[in-house]
């Protein structure tokens, strides 16, 4: 299903992918995506990380970190 990820990364919608690959069902494609999302390597491949923390807590941790406080960032 590497082709599925290639298409999605290129901005192709799932429906358009399914049109291009009529032997793949929507349920199969969704199952592949669900499995990939459970794999930490999926997030790492996009420079992201998986966390059980809510976004607000992650942001608070970053703001409290030493490196963040060294830089003057205006919001």
SSE arrangement:
Elements: H1 2-9, H2 14-20, H3 26-37, H4 40-44, H5 55-64, H6 66-70
Quickly count the helices.
6
Instruction: Provide the structure class.
Output: mainly alpha
Overall pLDDT confidence: 79
Strand content: under 5%
Compressed to H and E, one letter per element, the order equals: HHHHHH
Largest sheet geometry: none
Q: How many domains is the backbone divided into? A: 1
Radius of gyration: 18 Å
How far apart the termini lie comes to: 41 Å
Q: Kindly state the number of beta strands.
A: 0
Which term fits the overall shape?
A: elongated
- Indicate the percent of residues in helices: 55-70%
The low-confidence parts are none
Q: Could you explain how this protein is built, in words?
A:
It contains six helices and no strands. The protein is mainly α. It has one domain. The longest helix has 12 residues, at 26-37. The chain is elongated and about 55 Å long. The protein starts with a helix and ends in a 5-residue tail after the last helix. The model has no long low-confidence stretch (mean pLDDT 79).
Describe this structure in a few short sentences.
With 75 residues, this protein is mainly alpha-helical. 63% of the residues lie in helices and 0% in strands. The chain has one domain (2-70).
Which key terms come to mind for this protein?
75 residues; elongated; 63% helix; mainly alpha
